[in-house]
Design goal:
The protein is α/β, with parallel strands linked by helices and 336 residues long. It is built from ten helices and 15 strands. Strands 1, 2, 3, 4, 5 and 11 form a six-stranded mixed beta sheet that branches. The chain has a five-stranded mixed beta sheet with strand order 8-7-9-6-10. Strands 13-14-12-15 form a four-stranded antiparallel beta sheet, covered by helices on one side. The protein is globular.
């Protein structure tokens, strides 16, 4: 490659927007990012933690960031809520500008021993056999593809445990559970364990990438297990001002907990302006024990609000709360 070609190549690389996502490669967040953006128009950069994604976007190392926000089975992703709370004003310019939904099917990955032990029938498992205290035990919707007797520990992202409790209770009850930064990182760790005693809850793609055996397929409790991801950017998405698509917005706020009905007053602002709420979450303020930062998501856009209902509601909220922050407006991608 001559100097001119090299300069052109470097220029193109500089101009290509970077998308930071919770990695490593093959993570569910990576898959969500790929589903949201055209792969040939962006550089995808894996981050070790959700915090790293926020830092990359705030510092403009990345144009966009993709992080998990909530799961249909196990609820909100606390790590993301904690960063959106932004108690120390580390990410003052970050807003949510988009979302993506991904159907999540978990696989149990590991190594099949050279001489597998006798297969354990679920009907003989204490977790699946009716007892006086549990006359109708829950039964997982999938069974192991090989013996799991050799498994001594399981790695996965903390959010995945609650999505697979029925399977884990039936076949891996009492086995050590170890939290890691992502499901794909769990697969990496298991790949490095030559003893074969480790397993990971991760995706089928992670099995292919890391050369792991599939010990069980579809171990999630529900067939409709879905994770929603937020797309982050620094500043305001100006294109959203011209969008007429159905939208959602997110705000955070604090209230005076000594004032009776303060939270109800805030929520009544949305009722007064006929705005439908889609989710409510909270996290501790970490200033006074048992006082909270609230997150409310609702239908409508602050950026394109011809009726004035969204901005009217937010003005009313501002008169009641101690503090509040608009965290973004974006196109609603949920298929109903």
């Amino acid at each position: 490659m001559d100097d001119a070609q090299e300069t052109t190549h470097e220029s193109q690389a500089t101009l290509t927007p970077v998308v930071s996502f919770l990695g490593p490669v093959s993570s569910y967040t990576h898959q969500a990012a790929l589903s949201r953006f055209e792969s040939d128009k962006f550089n995808y950069t894996p981050a070790t933690t959700i915090t790293d994604v926020f830092k990359a976007v705030q510092s403009r190392e990345a144009e966009l960031g993709v992080v998990p926000f909530e799961n249909s089975t196990n609820g909100a992703v606390i790590f993301t809520l904690e960063l959106l709370a932004d108690r120390h004003d580390l990410y003052p310019d970050i807003t949510v500008c988009g979302e993506a939904y991904l159907d999540v099917s978990h696989y149990l990955l590991g190594r099949i021993p050279p001489q597998p032990a006798t297969f354990d029938s679920p009907d003989l498992s204490g977790a699946s056999t009716p007892t006086t205290s549990t006359p109708s035990p829950l039964r997982p919707k999938s069974k192991p593809l090989s013996s799991l007797r050799h498994i001594e520990r399981i790695y996965t992202h903390p959010q995945a445990w609650g999505q697979c409790e029925i399977f884990l209770g039936a076949y891996l009850k009492g086995i050590e559970r170890i939290d890691v930064s992502s499901t794909s990182r769990a697969a990496e760790i298991v790949k490095e364990d030559t003893s074969g005693a480790s397993a990971a809850i991760a995706s089928s793609l992670a099995a292919d990438i890391h050369g792991l055996d599939v010990l069980a397929k579809g171990i999630e409790d529900r067939d409709d297990n879905t994770t929603r991801f937020f797309v982050l950017r620094k500043g305001v998405d100006e294109a959203a001002r011209n969008s007429n698509a159905k939208s959602k917005s997110l705000i955070s706020f604090t209230i005076d907990h000594r004032s009776p009905g303060a939270l109800a007053q805030v929520l009544d602002c949305f009722r007064e302006y006929a705005l439908n709420l889609t989710s409510i979450n909270s996290r501790p303020t970490k200033v006074i024990p048992f006082q909270y930062i609230f997150f409310v998501e609702f239908e409508g856009s602050k950026l394109n609000d011809p009726s004035g209902r969204v901005n009217g509601a937010l003005e009313s909220v501002g008169r009641i709360v101690q503090s509040w922050r608009w965290l973004g407006s974006w196109e609603d991608k949920l298929e109903r």
